[in-house]
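Notebook entry, cofactor series.
This is the third protein in the set we're modelling with a bound small molecule. For this one the ligand is zinc ion. I'm keeping the input format identical across the series so the outputs can be compared line by line later. Sequence and SMILES below, as received.
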Amino acid sequence: MSTSLTVKGTQVDFPPVCVQCQQPAEATFEVSRSVRFRKRTVTVRLAVPMCATHHAMAMTKNATEQLLGRIGLILGVVAGAGVVAGLFWFWSQRGQNLVAANYLALAVVGAGMFYLVLRLFTGVIAPRYADPDAKSARNAVRITRYSALSRQLRVEIMNDSVAAAIAAANADRLLKQE
Ligand SMILES: [Zn+2]
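Returned structure with ligand:
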C-alpha cells in the first residue's frame, strides 16, 4: 500500500532519512512534475532524501536505458535538422528572403524538435526499461498531482511509515492524507 499526501504550497518538508529504508539520508534525488498553467509551463521539484545505496540505485541506468538515451540523442539531431532543412526548403521555394528573423525561427524550431525527441526517449520511453531496483527507488516518492491554481501538491509515498513521518513534518500544511 502507498499513502498520498496533499499539501498546500509547492514544497514538501522531508525528515532527513531515506524515503525507502529510513537510514540517515546522504543525498537527494530530484523528482519533478510539469503542468500547463495560464499558457506557461510550471514545474515543481522536490529534493527527495535517500541513503547512498538507494540514491545510487535511483541514479543507475542499465544498458537498455543508456542505449535508448543515445538513440534519442541521434533521432533528436536528425529530427531537428530535418525540420530546419524542410522549413529552409519551403521558404526558398516561396522565394522568401531569409532574413535574420527567419534564421532565428529556424534555430528555435530545430532546437525545440531536438529537445522534444530527446525528452520522449530519456524521460518517457527509457525509464520503462529501468531495473526494478532503480524503478522502486525513483518512485519511492512521486508527485502525482500539482494544481498551480490552488497551489496544492499531491505526493504518493510507497513506504507507509515514511509517509507518516512526512505527514508529521508537514502537519501545518497538510490538507489530506489518504
Ligand atoms: Zn535507503
